[in-house]
Amino acid sequence: MVSPKYHVFVCGSSRINGTQMGACLNKKSVALVQKFMQEIEDRDITSDCLVTNTGCFGICDKGPIAVVYPEGVWYGNLDEDKVEEICEKHLEGGVPVEAYRI
Ligand code: FES
Fold first, then answer.
1. pLDDT digit string (tens) for 22-31?
2. Residue 69 domain flag
3. Mutate which of 15, 20, 28, 56 to test ligand 1's pocket (most atoms within 8 Å of Cβ)?
């Protein structure tokens, strides 16, 4: 995969020194990375989607955060149910989930 259709960046709360700390990590964002990857695999869209664990986006109070490109859609206050819906409607269906945008 050289250029995926969608690139999902999920906040893993890493600081510049590599230390993981922060709101998203405390709200189980690592599990959300795994949830994105599992949903993408289950939907057989792995060739279209890449998921990357990132550092802090600087809006911790709205975490857990995920940003989906190429549209640049920012999602906040995520949980596993919301990730499932984003995978279904946005990554598979092509329509961002407005209710979870921040
Ligand atoms: S820790 Fe996720 S936005 Fe800051």
1. 889 888 999 9
2. yes
3. 56
